[in-house]
Every structure is written in C-alpha cells, then in structure tokens.
Amino acid sequence: MDIAIVLFDYFTALDAIGPLEVLALLPDSTVTLVTETPGVVRSERSGLSLNVAASLDDVPAPDVLVVPGGPGQAAQMGNERLLDWIRTAHLTSTWTTSVCTGSLLLGAAGLLTGKRATSYWLAMDELSSLGAEATFERVVVDGKIMTAAGVSSGIDMALTLAARIAGDLVAQTIQLNIEYDPQPPFDAGSEAKAPAEAVEGLRSRSRFKLPATR
Amino acid sequence: MDIAIVLFDYFTALDAIGPLEVLALLPDSTVTLVTETPGVVRSERSGLSLNVAASLDDVPAPDVLVVPGGPGQAAQMGNERLLDWIRTAHLTSTWTTSVCTGSLLLGAAGLLTGKRATSYWLAMDELSSLGAEATFERVVVDGKIMTAAGVSSGIDMALTLAARIAGDLVAQTIQLNIEYDPQPPFDAGSEAKAPAEAVEGLRSRSRFKLPATR
Fold it and tell me: If you measure CA to CA, which chain A residue comes closest to B24?
C-alpha cells in the first residue's frame, strides 16, 4: 500500500502528522511525504519545517492520498499542478482523503461535486460553494473519498481508514500503540460544545468569509 | 512565556507536534524547538525529519520545557549534556513536562524521585525503576512536573497546561481551534480496553524488558 501525504508551505503540522503516525503503522505499507518542489516545507508554525524528499511526480499513483489543510491551502486553490496531481492520483487511488481545509483542495480539483464531505468547522460554507454536500460529522466517507473535520480529526480518520484497509484488529492495535485514549480536560472541541465566547472569538478572526448569522 | 520542546533523533513526531500545535496558540508565548546540535533531526518515521535551528544553549531557561519520547529516548539516557540541560532548565521552569517515554529522560535527570508520574504504557516499569511513583493516568501533575502517557496524550496534557497557564477559556478556545472533539472508531486506546491480542502483540515486540506476567 503506497500512501502519499501531500505537503505545501504553511500546512498545519498536526493535520499531516496525526495520520502519518497512524498510517505508518499499517503492515506492508509505505508512507511518503510529497510536495511540488522537494526541499524544505514550512508549516503554519514559525520554526517548524520539514524536509520533503519526494516530488509529486515521484508518486503519481498512490493507493492512498492524504491532503492536509492549514492556512497555506488558500494559496494552492489555483495551483493547477497540484490540483492536476490530485485529480490524476484520484483516478487510480483506493482512498482519496483529506484533513481540515485539505477538503477544499479536493473540492477545487473537482472531486467533491455532489459528494458528502466535511472540513474545518469555519470552512464549511466554502466547502459547500465548491459543490460538496457539507456534512457536520468528524469523519465522512462517500465512496472512496474520506474527509475529516479540523486538525486533530485526522487521527480519527486515519484509524477509520486503517480499519477499512487492514481490519479492526490492526486499527485497534495502532490505536493502542499511539495510546489514543483521549481525555481532554474540557468538552469544547466543536462549535456546538465550546463556550460562545470561544466560538465568537475564533469566528471573528477567521480567514473565511462567513454569513453574519448562522 | 518561553516554551522549549526538546528534540533528538528518532523522537516520535506526534509526541512533539501535538503539544506544539496547542501551545503555539497560547497568547504571549513563543514555542522553540531545541536540540543538542542544530540542523536536521530525524523522527522515528523514515522520511520525516525536522529542521531545528536552536541549540540547547540558545534556550537555557525556558518557562516551560516539553520532553517528547520515542525510540530515540533510549540513546539519550546517558547523554549528560541533555540531562544537564533538563536539570538546569527545571531549576527555573514554571512547568517541566514530558510526553510518552520523555518521562524516562526526566527520570534519568533525577527529577522524578518520589514523584507521581506517567509514561508510555509499556514503559511504566522502567519509570518506576527511575524512582518515580508510576501512575496509570493520562496526565499526571505533581508540583510543577506534568507528565503524559503515550504519544497522543500530549494533546490532552498541553490543553491541561494551557488552562493552568492562561485559564479555562483560553484552553477551550485552543481546543475548538484544533477541533479536538475526539471520536475514535474504537475504544482500544489503553491496555485495559484494547483487545488482548492487540496488547500481547505490542508487548511481545516491546523494547522494554517486562515481567512475564503482570
């Protein structure tokens, strides 16, 4: 199983690293980080950059592609080289997946028309505008397209993917291996559950254009 | 608030990136990756390496230190330069923290004698042997030392830390920002909950010496 995780400048590191840690534990699989121009790829966080050796051309037909999101996604929406790679890879992939605003890139590539999909909670309107049936769930599967909600949801998505690919026991073993027994100190991880002040604070600073009321 | 995350070759990326994504969102704070010799630091996963610009000497007195774990921890247990840095930083830190087998490095530095602490589930005996009162909880706070269980628990720890540093609303806003509303497809993230076959599979391949029965 060849798994490619696509990186671009100003991606959100956890979007990519969560799935990577899970999928790297799949038996008989190889996870490769790929990027348009191999070299240093900067994350959203200053001081955090990765070295990516493989170009998009090096892995033209992965079995699984994972597209993370992050503020850098916006600059890629018109990058036809990247979008072409996503479209072409999707033709032969077993699974085409995204985390957070990575789903907007799947949408820009034209893969989500009429498909149920999710994204970062503040990006759901933009996801709709790209033709998807925006679905407020943490992990959404429509055919061979699997999309995850924001940032940390990539871990849940990757475990779901691991189970589909290799069975429940393998996925459960991976979950134990990364000791994923989440116990957040608060129950504030979604728009519905977080304090209104947290929701409004993030919404007011969002890079996404949002309706005044929802 | 100066926050230093200490990296070494063959660290587990998620141990470090989980806390980094949370702590980078703290107001008035700077997160710096530090390592013994600045340059490329390899993670546990082949093909995943980070560029680290700061040496240990560049950040001698962080307010918060975060020590991740991973297979590379074993090679650091006798690295007096690293252990001295941890000991010295701990003298003036507000919080001294670890994720996964990073707690074994706190133990090797002599910080855990008689302290309640946790670690990766397969490393709890080794944690005890370093003088700690090994505690099977996800996040353990004893004085200013905060230790987390395996890999993904660093996210829970960092949110706990964020609340202690900046208050509940800030931590809740960070939790929403990374959309941390965990919904794993299985409930197999701890030794007690995972299928016996998963537990035995990982135990039999563990790098830690374990008693024949527990």
Answer: A45
Contact (CB, 8 A) for B27 and B167: no
Listed residue (A114, A180, A190) closest to A149, CA to CA: A190
Cβ separation B175–A168 shorter than 8 A = no
Pairs from B77-81 (Cβ < 8 Å, separation ≥ 24)? B77/B104, B77/B105, B77/B108, B78/B108, B79/B8, B79/B36, B81/B36, B81/B56
Residue partners of A204: CB distance under 8 A and separation at least 6: none
User: Model's pTM, two decimal places?
Assistant: 0.96
| Beta carbons of A195 and B171 less than 8 angstroms apart | no
**Minimal CA separation from A86 to chain B, in Å:** 21
Bridge partners (DSSP) listed for residue A193: none
In our burial notation (b when 16+ CB lie closer than 10 A, e otherwise), range B15-45 reads: bbbbbbbbbbbbeebbbbbbbbebeebbbbb
| pLDDT in 10s for each residue of chain B, 214 residues | 999 999 999 999 999 999 999 999 999 999 999 999 999 999 999 999 999 999 999 999 999 999 999 999 999 999 999 999 999 999 999 999 999 999 999 999 999 999 999 999 999 999 999 999 999 999 999 999 999 999 999 999 999 999 999 999 999 999 999 999 999 999 999 999 999 999 999 999 998 865 544 3
Closest chain B CA to residue A176: B189
Determine contact: A171 vs chain B, CB below 8 A.
yes
Q: Which residues of A touch B55 (CB under 8 A)?
A: none
